[in-house]
């Protein structure tokens, strides 16, 4: 049975606003370091998936340095790592300038992982584009094993 670790909603902010202080966003890096240590030493996953909201960014801001700090921690993972942005990670171009474009899919531990960046709609709803639906179909044609959709 494959081991899949999932990290999400890190919400790192080195200088939190009063609202972020309630979330203790300044502790996110410390907690992430502890999680990485435990994953590497005790759990030893076949793959680690990081599902966005790496930083706690407000709309209109750009904090590539914060993304780089999280990336430097994630590089300590001994398992393959798939990272996709969340709605708090700022402009998509900031994310890709640090992490690169998410791949079409990643095969790990006998599973095909498909990262999607769904369009955010009003009311916290999302919509998958036609191009992404076609990519999903292509991934299925070339793969008989299990698939996991990441968004």
Walk me through what this model shows.
This protein has helices spanning 18-23, 28-43, 64-74, 92-99, 130-141, and strands at 4-7, 47-51, 81-84, 106-108, 111-115, 119-121, 125-127, 147-150. With 151 residues, it is of the alpha/beta class. The strands form 3 sheets. It has a 3-stranded parallel beta sheet, with no helix packed on it. It has a 3-stranded mixed beta sheet with strand order 4-5-8, covered by helices on one side. Strands 6-7 form a two-stranded antiparallel ribbon. Strand 2 (47-51), helix 3 and strand 3 form a beta-alpha-beta unit. Helix 2 (28-43) packs parallel to helix 3 (64-74) and helix 3 packs parallel to helix 4.
Question: Could you list some keywords that capture this structure?
Answer:
3-stranded parallel sheet, 3-stranded mixed sheet, 35% helix, 8 strands, alpha/beta, 151 residues, 5 helices, globular
Strand order of the largest sheet: 1-2-3
Average pLDDT works out at: 89
Specify the biggest β-sheet: 3 strands, parallel
One letter per element, helices H and strands E, the order comes to EHHEHEHEEEEHE
Helix residue percentage = 25-40%
Query: Runs with pLDDT <50, length 5+?
Result: none
What is the count of DSSP helices, taking H or I runs of 4+ residues? 5
Number of strands: 8
N- to C-terminal distance: 23 Å
Q: How much of the sequence is in beta strands?
A: 15-25%
Shape: globular
Helix vs. strand class: alpha/beta
- Rg over CA atoms, rounded to whole Å, is 16 Å
């Amino acid at each position: 049975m494959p081991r899949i670790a999932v990290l999400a909603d890190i919400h790192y902010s080195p200088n939190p606003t009063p609202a972020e202080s309630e979330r203790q966003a300044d502790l996110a890096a410390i907690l992430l370091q502890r999680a990485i240590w435990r994953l590497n030493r005790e759990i030893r996953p076949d793959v680690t998936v990081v599902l966005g909201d790496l930083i706690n960014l407000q709309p209109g801001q750009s904090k590539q340095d914060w993304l780089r700090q999280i990336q430097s921690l994630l590089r300590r993972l001994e398992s393959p790592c798939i990272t996709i942005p969340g709605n708090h990670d700022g402009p998509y171009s900031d994310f890709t300038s640090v992490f690169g474009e998410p791949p079409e899919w990643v095969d790990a531990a006998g599973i095909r992982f498909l990262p999607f960046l769904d369009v955010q709609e009003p009311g916290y709803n999302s919509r998958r584009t036609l191009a992404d639906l076609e990519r999903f179909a292509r991934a299925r044609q070339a793969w008989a094993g299990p698939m996991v959709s990441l968004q």
